[in-house]
Write the structure tokens for this entry.
Amino acid sequence: MTSPFFPNGEDDIADAIADAVRAGDTLAIVGGGSKAAVGAQTHARALSLAGLTGIVDYDPAELVLTVRPGTLLSDVQALVANEQQMLAFEPFDHGPIFGSPIGRATIGGVMAAGVAGSQRVSSGGARDHLLGFRAVSGRGEAFVAGAKVVKNVTGYDLPKLAAGSWGRVFALTELTMKVLPRPRVLATRVIAGLDDEQAIAAMAMAMGSQAEIAAAAHLPSYDGTALTVFRVQGFGPSVAARCAMLETLLTPIGRVEALSEDEAGRVWDDLRTLRPLGTTQPLWRINIAPSAAVSVTTALAPFGARWMLDWAGGLIWLVLDADVAVVRDAATRAGGHATLMRGDETLRAAVPAFHPGQPGLVALESRVRRAFDPAGVFETGRF
């Protein structure tokens, strides 16, 4: 990227986009830069939203928060935590995944990348928590979508389009999200020593039970021992009863044990930072039906792959230094898709970050982007 532009407000952003359209230039929208190493490098001018910070409105009683996109994720999380609330889709900072310190992720970048942590399996993804937004299109025109209420059924559901758009459709200038009460009690239960197939079966049983599992994951070789972990949360008596239910349900598969608060914190944190997978090898994010996860890991194990399973098996974080076609073929055969999240500059220049789509879907996506960005001002070649 070249000569970053740092606007101070929505009008500045609109002017910068309009100028780029007239000049035939492209703009790369950036926030804190924590995910800048995803996708190919680009020579487009950076349009930084890092200066658009601050809380616009927060109504804890209504569970609604409106914030500017450059606000740090950590500041947003601290704000709602003070009111005993949380961002239930459990967003996280990608810095450690790329060997960088934590603390640069912005709420706009999190939403634009559709980032969701382990609790997505029970609470939904980023797109399910974005109620509305303000943005500037590729025409340089400001517009509003959605609403600042939890129940809204009018118009097109553009918030679903914004989450996961990666700055390729419009520049977000304000976001309205729903927040949820923070659970009073968290408990983590674990079964040690399961293989992937056993772990998938255990997680499927748990998620389909009345134990109301908040998160489930499997770490095949966690510091030498395979761990399958389950998070149960809520009020104390309810958590205790559901943990007992879980122990009874899963006894035929393996012994269910409790993790201490410190041990549990470490495991769930490692699922966010991917510490067990290191920071040097190419990293893939594979979205798959949980029932098909074992077919992917079985296919890639002979090539030296290492992985962690989140979302009850629906998300595979995998490192493998091999032909990229091997990974994408395995994902395709299993009905999933593989995103290249990390690699050296040469690899990222040669391999599209996103999984190749079906022609009809690709054409539809292109038409949607052109509707908001007819001049292609946000088409930087990154993806």
About this structure: The radius of gyration is 21 Å. The first strand starts at residue 2 and ends at 5. The mean pLDDT is 94. The CA atoms of residues 191 and 256 lie 5 Å apart.
